[in-house]
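User: What would this chain look like folded?
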Amino acid sequence: MITRSVASVDSLTWQEQLAGSIRDPKELLHLLELDSFKAGTFESGALLKESLLDQALAANQDFPLRVPMAYLQRIKKGDINDPLLLQILPLKEELSGAPGYTADPLSEQTANPIPGLIHKYHGRVLLIVSPNCAINCRYCFRRHFPYQDNKPGRNEWLQALDYIAGDDSITEVIYSGGDPLAASDKQLLWLTEEIVQIKHVKRLRVHTRLPIVIPDRITDHCLHWLTSTDLLTSLVIHSNHPNELDSHVGSALKKLANAGVTLLNQTVLLSGINDSVETLQALSEKLFQMGVLPYYIHQLDKVKGAAHFEVTDQRAKQLITKLTAQLPGYLVPKLVREMPDHPNKVPLL
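Assistant: Here's the prediction, encoded as structure tokens.
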């Protein structure tokens, strides 16, 4: 029986909010007053021939639904075209194959020499700090990643640290996942203090969506490990739409900025969600108001199950050209695509 409601989460810790995430498509649709939605057309043009619940249950088998209540509160009830809902709602299109879309679009499994470590680019290495996310974005390029093989214990983390220590070309460590902030602050403090001992590592970068989906994650303990070392620390949030940036998110980002953490944002360009100049402009301006610089706008990684989100390169370039005419240069994210076996992200404009 469904008993929850879209209510305040102010009394809950971030861990409680994470544990209480919505995972049942039926509950999601009930909470958003979409239980009776049977057929129709999305603004993106996709025609629903089956009920939302039937679709969600089918797609949920391949990639499970997961969304925290703090994020759900920002979704408009009864609106099938809500841009936040479309990022997290399982749909049947995910089960249709598309040419060029694969389970490992960036060939990361060939750059995974040690559990928990990916080394693709010169000078930096990525650590899969947590296999878990607070939210399962339907376009996630790691939705098929073998996390079961990348859950290091303490001894395996020591192997990864030895790998970094043995390559003095590595000057930056990137925390990723899943979402690295899904790990405990105790674990993150230990790992960060170990990295500090490696003298050639100068920078720490954290890629996370948790300050967006559960802003209460930014605690004093979190700020401590982020700022208590000599590493130059940056935090890259992942926000795709201005509606994600409410006052609670703004407060969390202000805490980070006031603590001296450099804040950047990455956006994925998504059909029917943010592929308009108006939306991208509002996103850049709102990010800057909250102390965050727009960094990259990514063309979709061609992961199996996400083809319905694709925006053509021609359309993407048109959007950025128009955005450049509307905003100062520092508010215009760089349009890029990540490609397997490439030494860097590829600028498209």
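The CA atoms of residues 128 and 176 lie 5 Å apart. If you want, I can go into more detail on any region.
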